[in-house]
Amino acid sequence: MSIPEPLLVTLQAAPGYGTAPLLVGFLLNAVDPSGAPIVSYNWNFGDGHTSTLPPIMAFNTYAQPGNYVTRVTITTADGRSATGFAGVIVKPGAGGTMQQRQQNQ
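The chain above was modelled as a monomer; its predicted structure follows.
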């Protein structure tokens, strides 16, 4: 019995840091050396937002300052899975956080 090679998953955030509100794009690179198709994607952006959409690129807007870890878990048709991670650092904007600006209106 042969053991299949592990899935290779990388996730990049662009930009990886900035001021709130921060729109971040995530580029996913997922390779299965055995050639099994990817059948599911499970995105968690670290700020309460999630997605199961299958794009290799996703976007999320971080409204609040903080340090976030985004992860995406892929699953192949033969049931194997792997997870990629990317960090995002969001600093307060020049006028304070989005929540502070809304409270002042």
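The first strand starts at residue 8 and ends at 14.
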